[in-house]
Design a protein that fits this description.
By secondary structure, the protein is α+β, with helices and mostly antiparallel strands. It has helices at about 1-25, 135-140; strands spanning about 25-30, 45-50, 65, 75-80, 85-90, 95, 100, 115-120, 125, 145, 150-155, 165.
């Protein structure tokens, strides 16, 4: 028994500490709930998003996990479309940022209602890839950097969807 404790307990404790550290500071486990990110992320895809990615900045078209205040314990997965102090406009399902057309090659369905929104300091405009069914910044309004929990997702299950989504 002493030999077991001496050989294995430090490894077990080390693994627990490492898992705690990873989940507290590096990785955020997440499950995609719904079809708002189809076809790029599917309902019930399970993976890990990276908390540390926020330190390197949030960029346009990053996939992010957002803590939505008015939905208790609810995290949503969306794509960043607009960055702080930009004016976002959709006209005829085309994205314009500060008047310049920006292509969205990741979209299957190109339909997005027309709207215009000017972001303030520390505000991000996030939309689902499946625009027709997504509840996103058009519903909740812009999100602050504090509401963005993590960015980028590594889907690990189901195995058929395995892959890194930036």
């Amino acid at each position: 028994m002493k030999k077991f404790i001496k050989e294995y307990v430090p490894s077990i404790i080390g693994a627990i500490v490492l898992a705690f550290f990873l989940q507290a500071f590096i990785l955020f486990p997440c499950v995609v709930d719904g079809t708002s990110m189809d076809p790029n992320l599917k309902n019930d895809d399970f993976g890990y998003s990276f908390k540390i990615a926020k330190l390197f900045g949030i960029n346009r078209f990053d996939i992010v996990v957002i803590n939505v205040d008015d939905v208790k314990d609810k995290m949503i997965v969306k794509r960043v479309i607009g960055l702080p102090n930009e004016t976002i406009r959709y006209e005829n399902s085309k994205l314009y940022v500060d008047g310049e057309y920006i292509e969205e090659p990741f979209l299957n369905s190109k339909y997005t209602n027309d709207f215009i929104y000017t972001l303030g300091d520390n505000e991000y405009f996030c939309l689902g890839d499946n625009r027709e069914v997504s509840r996103d910044s058009r519903y909740y309004g812009p999100f602050s950097i504090d509401e963005i929990v993590s960015a980028h997702i590594l889907v690990v299950y189901p195995f058929s969807d395995f892959g890194y989504n930036k």
